[in-house]
Design a protein that fits this description.
The chain is of the alpha+beta class. It has a single domain, classed as 2-Layer Sandwich (Beta-Lactamase). The chain contains 7 helices and 4 strands, in the order H-H-H-E-E-H-H-H-E-E-H. A 4-stranded antiparallel β-sheet has the order 2-1-4-3. A hairpin with a 2-residue loop joins strand 1 and strand 2. Helix 3 packs across helix 7. 40% of the residues are buried.
Length: 166
């Protein structure tokens, strides 16, 4: 994603507020998360992305283990690099990469300027969301890369909402 695309996605009227992002994380806590759940959630994301012809890569991990990965037409190896960078933000901060970036912006700065973390290793751009299990906390991540950050984030949230209600 270019700097211009990032700025545009960040400034859109549909960008969620910090309170909305925090509420999403509270609401999308799961009762459990198994290998089969990773397959079901990943397959749901692939289906949604295909319906929209979204050129994304999708990654789901529990702890250090990759449980699901898919790259759809139009995605590139750069999307996998973005996945890794956004995932590391969730692992470090325990909340969505979009929420982390939004909190820095709310303070009048950026993640890149103020986090003191290498931008080649961490990216606080939307698309990485914690997999949180009741009674266990954050146990993994689900990440989408290939769209503007607001859309990457929204796709993950939509899939988690559908998955949770199934």
């Amino acid at each position: 994603m270019t700097a211009t695309a990032t700025a545009t996605a960040t400034a859109t009227a549909t960008a969620p507020t910090i309170a909305e992002l925090e509420e999403q994380e509270r609401r999308l806590t799961l009762p459990r998360f198994t290998y089969d759940d990773a397959w079901a959630l990943g397959s749901l994301l692939v289906g949604l992305a295909r319906e929209r012809r979204a050129p994304v890569a999708i990654d789901i991990r529990r702890g250090g283990q990759q449980l699901f990965h898919a790259a759809l037409p139009g995605s590139t190896p750069d999307n996998d690099a973005w996945i890794d960078r956004k995932r590391r933000v969730v692992e470090r901060y325990g909340c969505s990469s979009y929420l982390v970036g939004s909190r820095f912006r709310a303070k009048g700065t950026t993640f890149e300027e103020s986090s003191r973390l290498a931008p080649d290793v961490y990216a606080a751009h939307g698309g990485a969301f914690p997999i949180t299990v009741e009674g266990a906390g954050v146990i993994g991540t689900v990440v989408v890369s290939g769209l503007p950050q607001t859309e990457d984030h929204a796709l993950v949230v939509e899939a988690l909402e559908r998955f949770r209600s199934a």
